[in-house]
Amino acid sequence: MQKLQIALSLTLLSLLANPLFAQQNEFISDYLERLEQSRKYLLLVAETMPEEQYSFRATPESLSFAENLLHIGFALDWHSQSLLGGRESRDWNTDVIYKVSGKSKAEMIAIVDETFDAAIVLIQHFDPAQLADHLDYFGLERSKRQIFLLLADHITHHRGQMLVYMRLNGLTPPRYVLFQ
User: Fold this and answer.
1) At the topology level of CATH, where does 25-168 sit?
2) Angstrom distance (rounded) from CA 91 to CA 62
3) pLDDT, tens digit (0-9, with 9 covering 90-100), for 106-134
4) Count of alpha carbons within 13 Å of 16, Cβ hemisphere only?
C-alpha cells in the first residue's frame, strides 16, 4: 500500500511539474526569438547611421550614438554572462572592449554582434529551473526571469535613443520590426 501511495504521489508530482517546466522552456524559446529580432533591428539601425554621425549626442550630457551602441553591448554582456551566467562582471572603468575610443563603426557593430552571439548561446543552455532564482540587482531583489525582461527593456531604451539621434540628423530610421 505504501509503494502505491509513493507511486501515485510521484505520478501526481510529475503531472504538476511538466506544465510548469514546459512554460519555463517556452519563456526561454520566446525570449530567444525576441532577442534575435532585437539584434537584427539594432544592427540595421547601427548600419544605417553614417559613421561620421556616430559621435553625435543630443545634449552634452547624453551618450553619443556610438556610446549607446556599445553600452547596449556592455549591458547585454553583463546581464547575460554575469547575472544569468555567473561569470565575474567586467569593470566599466577598466573595460576596453565596450569603450568607443579608437573603434570604427564596423568594429563596434562586430563587437555588439559577437556579444549577441555569446548571450544567445548562454540563454540556449540556460536551465529554466533557475528562472525563479533571485539575486541582487542594484540593491533590489530580482528573479532571473526579471533579469531577462530588464535586459530586453534596456536594449529597447537605448536603441530608442539611437533612433531619435537618427531623426535629429535628418535620417529616416529603418522600419520597426515587430516581435522584439
Assistant:
1) Four Helix Bundle (Hemerythrin (Met), subunit A) (1.20.120)
2) 21
3) 999 999 999 999 999 999 999 999 999 99
4) 6
